[in-house]
Each structure stands twice: as structure tokens, then as C-alpha cells.
């Protein structure tokens, strides 16, 4: 993970460009561009380590991915609020495979219509696959927590639609 080019994420919130505490890095097959929270990012080429990990995640999940977003949460003070990953550039209902490293964090799902909640603990080395209609029917979040003092990295593999 030392070879990863971490940057603070930027998002446009209420029309203002802000840098988040969480850091991200974005890799893809070609010079992909990807719009997330209304900010367009261009992808860095894969590093050797990232390609190896993609191979593992693809074989474990039985899905293929052409890009990946890495998130670095320095501690439980950082998280991600409720959202679904349905950006226009993402393949509709495409799988998202998320590999967790470091601290165990709770990951929550909330059904968009019934508000039904499902919580899972994402442990070091675990792989969470969200596929089919998960993004259409559910939102997910990574709640902040006072209990976690150490960092967690998630490597989220996605498929960007070729236009
Ligand atoms: O860090 C995680 O496990 C979730 C990240 C996430 O939901 C996202 O990048 O869209
Ligand atoms: Fe997400």
C-alpha cells in the first residue's frame, strides 16, 4: 500500500468543493474518467500489487472488474455516509467487490423502501460482493465509531461502462 498514490477525496457539497479526511486512490484499465460526488477523477494505471489483488478478487467473486477505488480511513473518526454506488459511469447493477484490510469496521445496509437494516462486520482480509440489484434497492454506509483507533483500507473493484 506504500506504492499507492493516496489523495484526499474531494466532493461538491452544497456547491462547495471540500476535501474529505478520508483518502482515496483510483485505478483503472485505461485512462478512465469517473464521476463520483460530482467530481470527475481520472484513473491511474494499475500497480503490480493491485493487479495481483484484482486477480484474487475476480476469482473469489466470479466477476470481472476494470477499475478500483481505494479508501483509506485513518481511524473510526472517518467513515462514509449513506449512499448507493450508482454513478452514471458505473455498469448498471454491476458487481462491486470490496476487500477490507486493517481495522474491523461495521458496514451497514438500509433498504430504500422498507428501511430494513442489515449490519456486517468487515474484518481484515474479508471480501464483500455487492451485485445485481443491491445498489438499486439498498444504501450502504460505513458509520463512524469512537471504538476504532487504527486505520482501515478498502479496495473496491468496479466496472466502468465503456462509452
Ligand atoms: O470502505 C468501504 O467498505 C465502503 C466504500 C464505499 O462504499 C464506496 O467507496 O463507495
Ligand atoms: Fe459505496
TrEMBL record:
Fe2OG dioxygenase domain span: 64-161
GO terms for MF: dioxygenase activity
Domain of life: Bacteria
InterPro entries: AlkB-like, AlkB-like_sf, ALKBH3, Oxoglu/Fe-dep_dioxygenase_dom
Annotated keywords: Dioxygenase, Oxidoreductase
PANTHER family linked: ALPHA-KETOGLUTARATE-DEPENDENT DIOXYGENASE ALKB HOMOLOG 3
Name of the protein described by the UniProt record: Alpha-ketoglutarate-dependent dioxygenase AlkB
Naturally occurring in which organism (per UniProt): Ruegeria haliotis
Amino acid at each position: 500500500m506504500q506504492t499507492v498514490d493516496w489523495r484526499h477525496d474531494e466532493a461538491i457539497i452544497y456547491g462547495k468543493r471540500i476535501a474529505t479526511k478520508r483518502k482515496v486512490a483510483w485505478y483503472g484499465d485505461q485512462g478512465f474518467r469517473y464521476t463520483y460526488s460530482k467530481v470527475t477523477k481520472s484513473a491511474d494505471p494499475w500497480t503490480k500489487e493491485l493487479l495481483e489483488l484484482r486477480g484474487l478478487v475476480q476469482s473469489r467473486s466470479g466477476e470481472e472488474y476494470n477499475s478500483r477505488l481505494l479508501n483509506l480511513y485513518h481511524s473510526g473518526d472517518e467513515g462514509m455516509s449513506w449512499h448507493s454506488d450508482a454513478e452514471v459511469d458505473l455498469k448498471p447493477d454491476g458487481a462491486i467487490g470490496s476487500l477490507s484490510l486493517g481495522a474491523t469496521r461495521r458496514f451497514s445496509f438500509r433498504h430504500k423502501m422498507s428501511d430494513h437494516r442489515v449490519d456486517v462486520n468487515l474484518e481484515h482480509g474479508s471480501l464483500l460482493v455487492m451485485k445485481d440489484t443491491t445498489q438499486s434497492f439498498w444504501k450502504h454506509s460505513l458509520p463512524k465509531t469512537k471504538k476504532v483507533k487504527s486505520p482501515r483500507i478498502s479496495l473496491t473493484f468496479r466496472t466502468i461502462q465503456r462509452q
